[in-house]
Design a protein that fits this description.
The chain is α/β, with parallel strands linked by helices. It has helices spanning 12-19, 44-48, 53-64, 87-97, 112-125, 135-139, 141-144, 165-171, 173-180, 215-224, 281-293, 305-314, 323-341, and strands spanning 4-9, 32-34, 70-73, 102-107, 129-133, 155-160, 190-194, 208-213, 232-237, 257-260, 264-269. Helix 1 packs across helix 13, helix 4 (87-97) packs parallel to helix 5 and helix 11 packs across helix 12. 41% of the residues are buried.
Length: 343
């Protein structure tokens, strides 16, 4: 079974979306959670109770993902004032207490303190590490791999093309050759491609229904039949886009939702909820649900929480919720769809 690495922000909507996956969907799904400062803090009450950000993060991971393996990229975090080590050290310790299977993830751009923390966690837990690279780093692995300080056999290499995956796909044969000629290709513990076709925002899109080809999926399909000397895993950004949601997204911002089809994204582009031509949130979300529910190539998935929810909203049997509800729906449907399509 091909491995699948959905890349997620550790935020409420994403957390709830993965928590409602079917048990069978989780097989060989190893999410990569990106943790930033907003996800690594505690309330005043939690501080008074002696609970640390690392403990709260580990508790949330146990609650919403459980004890299945996952990657954690905490490279955006900074040490607390006066601390001599990176917060990843504390997170890994809290994860051990909770029985979690944390695999640290890093990249060549990570600072030395974080790189040292990844080395420590890898040596202590013995689960290896994930290493994110771009196309240039893929083709120059012979120059940097020996200096990174980890054996090939414990590294999961993630060729993360982010929003440039469409450009990589368009390269055609040269892109495939880069994977075929990957330095010590079969020696890495695993190799996965990842990226996203979702735009940073939809400012250039008019209100209505849009179809966006999933270039990352098409690239994986091309690589999977290219006769590589190793198995190629699949990864993508299960979130709406690479950009963080703007402040005040619940009020005034155009109401957009994403729904994953087999080879494309179905995007329902809404309008603002304030100002000229505005439409309230609920009617827009109900309209989006009806569009999705009746879409000819939808391919509804049995037992999928997201699909059941969309149909209930479309039928008027359930509240349309809010934008966080639809992040949950998008994440849940996306991972269910991808896992059902991967061999």
């Amino acid at each position: 079974m091909a491995r699948y690495i959905p890349i997620l922000r550790w935020k409420q909507g994403e957390r709830r979306g993965i928590s409602q996956l079917q048990a069978g969907t989780r097989r060989n799904v190893i999410p990569l959670f990106q943790v930033g400062a907003d996800q690594f803090r505690v309330s005043a009450a939690q501080q008074r109770a002696g609970r640390s950000p690392a403990q709260e993060l580990a508790n949330g991971l146990l609650s919403d993902w459980g004890t299945s393996p996952f990657y954690l990229d905490a490279s955006e975090l900074s040490p607390a004032p006066g601390a001599t080590h990176h917060p990843l050290i504390d997170i890994a310790a809290a994860a051990r207490t909770n029985g979690l299977q944390l695999i640290p993830a890093s990249s060549l751009s990570a600072n030395r303190l974080y790189a040292a923390a990844v080395q420590t966690a890898t040596a202590t837990d013995g689960r290896g590490a994930g290493f994110r690279i771009d196309l240039h780093e893929l083709t120059t692995a012979s120059a940097w791999s020996a200096s990174w300080g980890q054996a090939f056999g414990v590294i999961d290499l993630i060729a993360d093309f982010r929003g440039s995956v469409g450009t990589v796909l368009a390269l055609g044969a040269p892109a495939i050759a880069a994977f075929q000629n990957l330095h010590n290709g079969p020696a890495w513990r695993s190799v996965t491609i990842a990226g996203t076709s979702m735009p940073l925002d939809f400012s250039g899109y008019s209100a209505g229904v849009h179809i966006i080809p999933r270039a990352e999926w098409l690239l994986w399909q091309a690589l999977s039949i290219a006769g590589l000397p190793y198995d190629i895993g699949y990864g993508d950004y299960a979130t709406v886009s690479l950009a963080a949601p703007p402040p005040g997204i619940a009020w005034g911002y155009p109401i957009n939702v994403k729904y994953t089809l087999q080879n494309e994204f179905l995007v329902c582009r809404g309008v603002k909820t304030t100002g000229r031509g505005a439409v309230d949130l609920a009617p827009q979300l109900i309209g989006h649900a009806r569009t999705i529910s009746g879409y000819p190539t939808r391919a509804r998935l049995a037992g999928c929480w997201a699909d059941d929810t969309v149909d209930a909203i479309a039928a008027g049997a359930q509240s349309p919720g809010n934008l966080e509800t639809w992040v949950r729906i998008g994440i849940n449907r996306h991972i269910e769809r991808v896992r059902s399509d991967l061999p």
